[in-house]
Amino acid sequence: MTRLFARIAGFFLLVTAATGASAQEQAACRDCLTAQEARADLASLYASLQQEHVDLFARRSEAEYDAKIAELRARISGPIAKPEFNLLVQEALAFGNIGHSKTDAPVGDTIAYVQAGGTIVPLSIVYRGDSMLTEEWADTTDDMPPGSRITRIGGMTMQQFEDRARELIAADTPRLLRAQVEMALPVYLHQMFGPVDALAVEYVVSDGTTRSREIAAMTYGEMLALQESRPVVKPERRASTRVAREMPDDIYYLQPGPFFATEEERGDGEGDYAIGAFSSFVDEAFASMARSGARDLLIDLRGNPGGDASFSDLIVARLVDEPFRHSSRYEIRAGANTKRIWQDREIDSDTLGGKVGSAIATAKVGERVAIELPSIEPIDENAFEGRVWLLVDKHSYSNAAVVAALMQDLDIATIMGEETADLPTTYGAVERFSLPNSGASIVYPKAYMVRPSGSEEVRGVVPEYPIAPNPIGEKRDLMLETALTQIRAARR
Fold it and tell me: What residue range is the signal peptide (predicted)?
């Protein structure tokens, strides 16, 4: 898919407002749920979340959630198409304001729509402060260049747009909400406005002139052709690539890539947690670092989607002198579905997975229990003893944000870059269940994890040295250049 879709980091989708169907629509409805089936699935969703979610009412009271579910139920007035119902389910999940509580179903519906030749409005954007700026060309004219500041979409002010998005996208904070909007705005616009031939956009160009235009919807192939014909200059960097190299002035650069096995690294029958190739990469990187005589190590986690701590531990353990733990507090809820998922897993009592498995097996159904995390021992081979710097941005997600918080709290590294949108104290370690009638897959967090410092502030990792993201249309990696300048300046 194009850059517009490849940047999707999660299944956080907007939903349409109406769910009822007219008599004519009901007669023509295919692949629908009856009103009874849909309401039963909503009841099942709510009951299961209360038993499985580690803290469903962390940010919404039970009374508020009761009222929300009742409102959604009342909106089902007859047979409802599954894609419409899937969006309704996502609205119920987004109401809790917890990013790891969501459904995969709506994004599947949207992708199927696109693959069948459906059109979407090709707006690719980034946020700079409170401003939404276009990042790519939206059509073949020069009227709305990249870097234009959008002020209205589909007749809504930006405040109205974000208020609506906040109701519909599962996100813990406004910053995480905006990060999700950045990832796939065309998808969200389709879910908010439905299939449209064009969408009205008002914007301000670089000279301060206010303009408006209709942005025509395009097929996937048309969007791909547009981006290829009108490329926007940007740094030649891929966050998914594993890079280890010497840099001038005794600085070593390490971009570990995702903390899971890439498709190329998985052997026959192996999945995301096939760690062999990553382990070899890290071993060679630290051996090369030792040979180089580097005084400073810069670890680049910008755009890192995260993954599993067993991968990142191979790096962190070479930077510490004492054993460490990832969290100051780790609690799980042993719901019936979670117990069923874990009942056949092998348990190694010395690992986090083993401790989680043991706790789930012995806890009562629905009980929330605390787990003492295992200590991770230092790795002496080619351990690095110089200064460590970590570069992050708003799209350093999941375990990448946790690693940044860990290294900050343990005073292992100095953090540079943008505040992360994802949270280091978070509800995570997700599991899944499916609704009985629609079959929608529901993702829920079974664990609550508190960063090593013990802070429960609902906020991302805040760098000691803030660095602005790259300007739109800039080929040089100015974030990296600024980080390197800071490292050199700190030696004086």
Answer: 1-23
